[in-house]
Amino acid sequence: MDLGIRGKNALVCAASKGLGKGCAMSLAREGVNLVITARGKEALETTADEIRKATGAKVVAIAGDITTPAGRAQALAACPNPDILVNNAGGPPPGDFRNWSREDWLKAIDANMLAPIELIKATVDAMIARRFGRIVNITSGAVRMPIPELGLSNGARTGLTGFVAGLARQTVAHNVTINNLLPGPFDTDRLRSNLVFHAQKLGKTPEELARTRTEANPAKRFGTVAEFGDACAFLCSAQAGYITGQNLLLDGGAFPGTL
To answer: Of 53, 57, 157, 179, which is most buried with the most CB atoms under 10 A?
Structure first.
C-alpha cells in the first residue's frame, strides 16, 4: 500500500540503532527524506549509509544529544519544517526509587517528557499551516503496565502521554496527528541491558532469562525493529489522519487487558 508520504520530510530522533533506526528505515522505504539524530556519530553515519543503500532515500545525519537544547537546535537547523516528527530518546536506567535523587528525576523528565514537548512546540504550528503533520512519540509499554524498577521511565513517559492527550485533540482538525507507540519487549540494546540487570539480581544468565521471557509472551518471541518501524510508518501515513491521541501498544499480547 502506498502510504502517500513520498517526498515528505521527517526528523527521526535517536535513530542510529534500535527502534528509532527501524522507524527511519521504514519511512525511507516510503520515499521520505530523513534527518536522523543520535549521540554517537560513528554509529549514526553507519546507519545513514545503510538506509541510503537500502532505500535510495536522502538521509542527513546530525550527531548530537536531542535531550539538550543544543542538540535540538542542531537537529532543527537541519530540518526546520518537518512534515513528520518521530520523538525518541533512551530511557533512564532501572533501579530503586529510594536511591534516586532530584537530579535523577529531572534528567529523566528532561529526556523523556520535556525534550519531545520542546520539539513538538518547535514544529507543530508549521505543520498546521501546511495542513499536514504526523508526530509519533516512542514511549514504553510501561505507560500501560508500569515496571517497578523503571520508575523514572514510568513517571516521565506518562507525563508526556498526558500532555499529548490534550494537544492531539486540538491539532487533528488541521490534519496534524499526534500518537504514541508503546513498545513492549523488542530485540534492542535496551532490552539486552535490562536482561543483564535482572539476570544478575536473579542469579541467572541473560540467555536463560530471555528464554523465560519469550516463553511467557503470547507471541513466544521478542518484537523486531522492522515491524515496529512499519507501525510507525503507518501512523505517519496520509491514511492515518483520523487516528490521534492514541497509545498503540506493541507487546505481543503481553498486556492482559481487554481494552
So the answer is: 157
Q: How far apart are the C-alpha atoms of 90 and 87, rounded to whole Å?
A: 11
Residue 236 and residue 138 in contact, taking contact as beta carbons nearer than 8 Å: no
* Residue 257 cell numbers, joined: 487487558
Q: How many Å is the Cα radius of gyration of the chain?
A: 18
Query: Considering the entire predicted model, what is its pTM?
Result: 0.94
Distance CA 92, CA 95 (A): 9
Minimal CA–CA distance to 91: which of 27, 141, 22, 127?
Answer: 141
Residue 184 CB burial class (10 angstroms; 0-12, 13-18, ≥19): buried
Residue 12: closest CA among 243, 194, 30: 30
∠ CA 138-225-43, rounded to 5°: 85
Identify which of 79, 171, 89 has the alpha carbon closest to the alpha carbon of residue 137.
89
Strand stretches in the chain, DSSP E = 9-12, 33-38, 59-63, 84-87, 133-138, 176-183, 247-250
From 94, 226, 215, 228, select the one nearest 207 (Cα to Cα): 215
How far apart (Å, rounded) are the C-alpha atoms in residues 257 and 259? 6
Residues 101-123 have a mean pLDDT of 97
Determine what percent of the chain falls in helix, strand and coil, rounding each to the nearest 5. 55, 15, 30
